[in-house]
Amino acid sequence: MAHIPLRRVGTHGLAWAIFIAYEVSIIFFTSTLQRVYWWEYLGFYLLNILLFYVNAHVVLPYCFAKRGSPWLLLLLLPLELGLYIILQYGLELFYNLFRPVPKPLLFQQKFILSYLWRGIYFFMLSTPYWLVRRTIENTKTISRLQVERYRIQKEKAELEKDLVKSQNAYLQAQINPHFLFNTLNFLYNQVMDVSPKASEGILLLSQVMRHALATVHEDGKTELTRELDHIRQYIALNQLRFQHPLHLHLQAEGQLQGLRLPPLLLLTLVENMFRHGDLTDPDHPARITLRQEAGTLSFCTRNKKRTSYVRSGHRLGLENARTRLLNTYGPDGHCLGIHEDERNYTVHLQINTI
Prior knowledge:
single chain; 354 residues; alpha+beta; Heat Shock Protein 90; 6-stranded mixed sheet; two-stranded antiparallel ribbon; 8 strands; 13% strand; rod-shaped; kinase; phosphorelay sensor kinase activity; transmembrane; Sensor histidine kinase YesM
């Protein structure tokens, strides 16, 4: 049942009170005074008000609906007026049971025509009310559609703007792969005899960059084994960057061949360890575990929390990973959980539909 605001009920009640007072005052000043009880007016006006709202909220909307027909009004209006006259006659008979002097009643032409005119009168009153109400509803619908269209156009413009920004960023960041790898190969050959460690770093960097620029499949995914090799190269490259050794164990189990997932997804979680974890404590080494079993891929990183200052915004990579997972696998196809205590920080990713 639709909720009717109290303010609207009050407004309609006030309008009917003014209308009834107007009609009663006309009868009082222009007609011969007769003994009429207040409850008689109550019953008669309740029937009139019922006719008004049934016509405005049921009959006319049904006849002029999209699937309705205005010709139905020629059938429904006589039925509506006939029922109204019968109810008025029944109400008069009921009132005669309580009147000190019962009113003589004959269901004849005079009685029928008087209430027929009365019914047509309230039908004519309800029709403008229905037209105004319908116009207001149509105006609200048009305004709502215009607001919705404006919102869609605004979102479309923002998407197009973001697309242009992405295209510009892509073009600005795009580097000719041949130039990049030829340059790294030149640097590798130049420093190989001078500094084997630096040359090894250049070689690892070349391999990491080659993986990052590798072409993905049409579904936007790459092989899991290549992602695992990329993680190993990334770990080895970071081992060269620091004077002290990094304590990190990588373990992969299960059948990984033939599996694919979004590129650089797992690396994002690994990179989060290097940026914000303490990997220098041999008593609490960081761990990376990759396991595949029963169609489910489980990837877990666990590291000691760094006690030194870590700049804010460190969860941006994890939020980006959440967005990519949601877009690729949906809310039911994966689970990314984060747990931390005073010492350790753990990220556990499970993909069910890999």
